[in-house]
Design a protein that fits this description.
Elements: E1 6-10, H1 14-26, E2 30-35, H2 38-48, E3 52-55, E4 58-59, E5 62-63, H3 64-74, E6 79-84, H4 89-98, E7 102-105, H5 110-121, E8 126-127, H6 131-145, H7 157-167, H8 172-179, H9 183-197, H10 202-211
Parallel strand pairs: 1-2, 1-3, 3-6, 6-7, 7-8
Antiparallel strand pairs: 4-5
Helix pairs in contact: 2-3, 4-6, 7-9, 7-10, 8-9
Keywords: DNA-binding, Phosphoprotein
Domain HTH luxR-type: 148-213
Organism: Pseudonocardia adelaidensis
């Protein structure tokens, strides 16, 4: 039995690729496809429309960055989680700028990977510990260097509170417990904020919160 989350695994090493696909399948995810390179990843993703793409950055002669951009151009609602041997800051930032929803290093355990894929499917940004602060700092730096953008839509105090906690990766139930409201009320605030900001999901909300300096370290 699967839990309804469809996943595609992209890696140029066949043993690693098939091993990850098998681990995820055994733990209840629906691995609908695998791919060995960027071109195949984009082509296959268009056909199977996975909810989450789990992708390495080093794909032999091609780069995962090309695949990220190609997949998201065709399937903007698909979420991409990078799984890479590299923890280099430049690789992390380039992946996020290309549109990745999260970044894990390959030292993650099978259970950590499973939890990360599920959270990514639910719209939350997921990073190996230590990398989230790097991304936060970079977005703040970029936001601080350009203050000439359009006016920021006004959010209520409660919407701002919810946005701050969404960006920290909390679920609606966890936010509700923190703020003393029901999870349905939290979802109402989330949907209202998405409409006001003309965004589509929680990953975009988190990025917005980081860019505006709403998230506290």
């Amino acid at each position: 039995m699967t839990d309804g989350i469809t996943v595609m695994v992209v890696d140029d090493h066949p043993i690693w690729r098939e091993g990850v696909a098998r681990d995820l399948t055994e733990r209840g995810l629906d691995v609908v496809a695998t791919a060995p390179d960027a071109d195949a990843a984009v082509r296959i993703a268009r056909a199977v429309r996975p909810r989450v793409v789990l992708m390495d950055l080093n794909l032999g002669e091609t780069t995962g960055l090309q695949a990220i951009e190609g997949i998201l151009t065709a399937l903007p609602e698909t979420r991409i989680l990078v799984l890479s041997a590299s923890g280099e800051h430049a690789d992390v930032l380039e992946a996020v700028k290309a549109g990745a929803a999260g970044y894990l290093v390959k030292s993650a355990s099978a259970e950590e990977l499973l939890a990360a894929v599920r959270r990514t499917a639910d719209g939350f940004p997921v990073f190996t510990p230590g990398l989230a602060g790097l991304v936060l700092g970079e977005y703040r730096r970029l936001a601080g260097s350009d203050r000439s953008g359009p006016a920021v839509p006004a959010l209520t105090e409660r919407e701002t509170d919810v946005l701050r906690l969404v960006a920290k990766g909390l679920t609606a139930r966890q936010i509700g417990e923190r703020l003393g409201v029901s999870h349905r009320t939290v979802e109402t605030h989330v949907q209202s904020t998405l409409r006001k900001l003309q965004l589509h999901n929680r990953v975009q909300l988190a990025r917005y919160a980081i860019e505006q300096g709403i998230v506290e370290e």
